[in-house]
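re the bet — no i am not wrong, look at it urself. input seq straight from the record:
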Amino acid sequence: MRRSPKHRAEPAGRPRSDALGGHAAKNARAVASTAASLAVALAPSLLGGAPAHAALAAAVTAGYPQRAAQVGVTIVTLQTKDKSAADAAALDVTAYRNAVASASSYWSAMSAGRISLRVTKVVAGFKTSASSGDDFGTIMSTVSRELGWTPGSSTVLLLAVPRDDILVSGSKGNLGAGWAASQTSGRILLPRPSSFTGPVTAHEMGHILGIGHANTLQCSNGAVDAVRAGARFADTSCSTRGYGDGTDLMGISRYSQPQLNAYLYEYGGMGRGDEIANIGTPGAASTYTLTPWAGGAPRRAAKFKDPSTGEWYYLQYRAPVGYDAPTALAGNQGVQIIKGGLDESESLLIPPTTKPFSGVYAANLAWQPGQTFTTAGGTRVSINAAGAASATVSITSKGAVPENVAALMDAKAAQFGLGPGFGGIGTLRDGGLYHMYQRGAVVWTPSAGARVSKGAIRGVWQRLGFENGSLGFPTSDEIGGLKDGGVYQMYQGGAIVWSPQNGAFESKGAIRGAWQRLGLEDGKMGYPTSGEVGGLRNGGVSQMYEGGAIVWSPQTGAFESMGAIRGAWQRLGLEKGRLGYPTSGEVGGLRNGGVSQMYEGGAIVWSPQTGAFESTGPLRDRWLKLGAQNGDLGYPTSAEITGLKGGGSSQSYEGGAIVFSPATGAFESVGAIRAAWSSLGSQNGKLGYPTSGEASGLRGGGVSQSFQGGTIVWSPRTGAHESLGAIRGVWTSMGAQDGALGYPTSGEIGGLKNGGVYQQYEGGAVMWSPKTGAHESMGAIRAAWGSMGYENGKMGYPTSGEYAISGGVAQNFEGGRIEWNRSSGIKVIASVGAASGTVTPIPAPPPAPAPTPSPAPAPTPPPAVNTETAAQIQSMVRQTAVQMGVDPALALAVAEQESSFRQNVTSPVGAIGVMQIMPANRDWLAGMTGRPTLDLNRTADNIAGGVAMLRWLTAEAKNLDEAIAGYYQGLGSVQSRGMYDDTKVYVAQVKARMAKF
């Protein structure tokens, strides 16, 4: 049996497809051997007890009168056109006979012996033109026509098809289907026999008798009850869960055949007619006794009419007796509350919780002692006790005050000094009551008793909708003794917390769970300072506390957000920024007292020395690969800087930086190699972005790093120098640092004749010119060439590398050839046209290191293209400071101190312009100013870079003195080492200049 369209039995030709859906069937078959214990369910039974009235009111009109029927069943096993005779012969007729006999026994017991079934005819292997894969309606109509079968009084046609399930409206996995034609006549289609054949046959026979499904009430908001309003429920969050009552034959199929519930029992005209006591409309509290519903006692169930809604409710006690023995176990043994469904032929069981349940069989369909059910109209049903033989319940109409409640309320009011009461006792949902007093109220519920509600805490509860809001009813009185005089009160859905400093705010759900994890008000978050605030991205919610916030989203859960890490998250746009929501709390215990927190888009990392900065994407991946804060890079010291050339980005760390571009990926940039790269223009220079990390293990402890345009090579003896282009090609062809040239001892040096360039190495040099290309120059041949003026002499540039000759080596030049012989030394052979090839002998030099190359000419400073006067520069500094939100007096004082408002000045250490900025800071400041092409040699750009640095310093430093010192000494150095003596003098001078501006 499965969910299907419901129908009354009278109209001919209307199908009822009842089958266990594919998923449910698989689950059911999987637990076939233990179905009775795993698929627990309850059947209500009511023992007639002392009625509320001397005479019971008339029973509700049944759907059908009590009937007597001897139903004849024709069994037909089918050979469909897609199956063989052997398939049809394999259908076990005996199994179907047994199923009919089992159904007969069941319905005979339900009808007090008036209804029975017997097999009157068997047709085995009937050949039909229908296919086993046809829809059930097609198969039944086709076979009925071929057999000439027509419905009649007390006749049932049972067809068996050779497959394991039935197709219903295109859905597979169904274990049976029925088609009722009258109150006692119809057709049933079954697949091959299984453990479900008997229960399914009995279930389908129930439909032929006009009885609908046993369903449950399901409400997404957890509403306890819902009033029927025509074809729907008044509460739109509520719906019918078809087949939801697995403790009933007419619900989801089981291997057993549970007792038909009291509502369907009466609707179908079953039993003797004395099984259900009619309480009528209840008044004051009255107690009733229920005996097991699957037993045989009279008045074992009860029904009453809610005076407000007019709906009838049935009470029955499901206990492991009779047909309920396998299913009325655990949470399904107890009192069941049932009423008619949206279709009157169906029942609607109301479980203790109407929240949707997962799986096939519900495990808690019965109410237990101590629980109270309140109808939508306010009538209360309290479960007092339940034992092996009976259960007792109390039924109280709306407005009837339970015994001693008024006295309890007055006592509670006196205990908390609420003053005199006024007005009567009012009613609330689920049987709750309240009474107002001069300084508050007392609220009573069946489960929590009388609880005080007053002051600021009551104000918050009122703001949240009292008992109908998210907190529900109070479950405790106000409890004091918290830190700093705080007070709290517990509710069904959480708590309200009050402190003298902050007032009262709710604490509930996942956010409360996170706050509890952090130590509640005694932890680092302290007391709440706001209520929950919704409307965040993707349905998120936050709540503020003394120490920060707790942020929740459906996808990530609830986590704290506090301190410097929260500040960095705010800078990045909170949950709307690229980091998204936090996915963890703060995690401490990192090196040097560091802390990190994870987010959807990465992490934020903090240390006392460096502050808090994001760590995301490829930059983070590389940092983690290098050991994160425990590696050579240490903690991040800046935010991620974007907008670099080609979509690149970078981030600074204690030990260097990581640089990323879409074309190259992310790699570290540290130490001497980073300094050399920066001096060459970083990613904007001829080397471009790094394409690898540093590679160590070279000769003599050397290290190299590859870039788009070449390599930088470092050794302890020679330092770091670039290696690129044709010169690099010669060097690598000679074995790089392991060859005769060794490590480079300089970068490339230009400015030679005809556009030539050279680079010095431990063992010589490599020379290049546009005309001759790149060739090594070393040893005695280089010495001889040098004595003749290098490329400016008569020999010009080398046109080949050294090559072997008899007894030595030679090298060709534009002006001839130089040879070295180990016995005769150097010979210089003039170019063609010289007097008969003149040879000039030169003594062979001793095997000493190569001569030190001539120093490269000092770079020519850029022309003085900036012609602004000091007054004009002063005005530019003031205007830029205002635009960037920096104190103009601070910016003007620093500019005057650094350059006296002059642009065309360069310090001995290379600092440039008005604000005296080091070229190595250019890329960082380009990101800070939003000027990718920032040119420190231009007055406006220089000022913008300096003011941007001041803006960053004032935001990151603890105070103004530390910010000024950071401009001179570096903020990291100031914070870790303190101010040097000359730094202190600088700070005093700048502050003195600020006074005049």
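see?? The chain is about 25% helix and 25% strand. told u. also The CA atoms of residues 226 and 366 lie 18 Å apart. so pay up
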